[in-house]
Amino acid sequence: MVATVRLNSELEEVLNSVAKRFHKKKSDVIREAIVFYAESLEKNKQSRMQKAMQKTMKSDYAEYVELEGSLDDAL
Fold this sequence. Notes:
Helix content: over 70%
Number of strands: 0
Strand content: under 5%
Number of domains: 1
Structural class: mainly alpha
Oligomer: single chain
Mean pLDDT: 89
Order of helices and strands: HH
Radius of gyration: 25 Å
Low-confidence stretches: none
Number of helices: 2
Shape: rod-shaped
């Protein structure tokens, strides 16, 4: 697939600089940036899911402890 990307002069300078520094074609730098961005989004998504699961587990445990305490009171 061929894609056209429009860059302002600032981004063009950054792209040229990165390509020169790493001795890569500009198209390679752009492809690697897309892969990096996609992986970063996936890691962020996984991190948010893990935090949500931990929060749910803490909440469930607190509810369990409260229920256990009320059962002991009834006996």
